[in-house]
């Protein structure tokens, strides 16, 4: 049997799809299972034991346009899947499900052209369930055995990284002395999802005052934000417990670095999911988004810090600027409260 799972949404969405993949593999252990992800994410899943092959769709690059879409559809058809699972909602995703011609095609009823594309449809139940459970509805529609669906151990997105990524992370972190280490990631694709640079700078200064190692992280395009945090914190270039890795990691090495931290202070972002999926304690700062949307970090070592405002949430992803003009959802997050959460997690790790 050959199964395909398609989710070309953002980084975090692909991580949250891993429980669905684990459930499908547990139901059909001898099946070949392929995963289709957004361009640039394929390397992250190359060592995932449940996955046979990973394909990336660079829909804003080489795979942009109708000609590329039709070409990709033909390639999918040639792979002759028995089951196609569409975990996305876009018109392009629906086309790929149709083009692949799998005998069984399952997707959300809310997806584009779902009535004409899918042989089995389920309602997404967006306001009732968390995202992982919404995705598992697709497995339920495939008549996966109840014992597999109810196996709580399969509901964690266990991320497996290749050894080279782990070695690279070890090398990147080697300049730091022994001791507890936290990561700070002040960036996000959406500007309104970013806690203030002043808030991150406060945590950076406080950590160094307490002899805690700090790793500053930033992805492509986020380096300026990281530089501002460092400047506001007044960190000297010779500070032995500070390591600036902003703009210096690949996606793979970033994931591996996150797996070695004692706490990760982050905005609501894709890397947040890379951290808690590896059982790294997470201090997540939510502003325009809320936990009820279904994308919050899980586990007893994950905390969401937020402020109560009537205008929250203002959208599924956030905005470039605050729709109300005050940005109070992030400005009102108390740095002292954030530090107390970090300190609590470091104390718990020390006792282990």
Detailed description of the structure:
The protein is built from 14 helices and twelve strands. Helix 3 (66-78) packs parallel to helix 4 and helix 8 (163-173) crosses helix 11. With 352 residues, the protein is of the alpha/beta class. The longest helix is centred in the C-terminal third of the chain and has 17 residues, at 335-351. The protein has two domains: 2-155, Rossmann fold (3-Layer(aba) Sandwich); 163-351, Rossmann fold (3-Layer(aba) Sandwich). The strands form two sheets. The chain has a six-stranded parallel sheet with strand order 3-2-1-4-5-6, sandwiched between helices. Strands 9-8-7-10-11-12 form a six-stranded parallel sheet, with helices on both faces. Helix 5 links the parallel strand 5 (104-108) and strand 6 (120-122). The chain has helices at residues 11-16, 18-27, 66-78, 91-100, 114-117, 131-141, 146-149, 163-173, 197-209, 223-233, 251-258, 270-276, 328-331, 335-351, and strands at 2-7, 32-38, 53-57, 83-86, 104-108, 120-122, 181-185, 213-216, 242-244, 263-267, 282-285, 302-305.
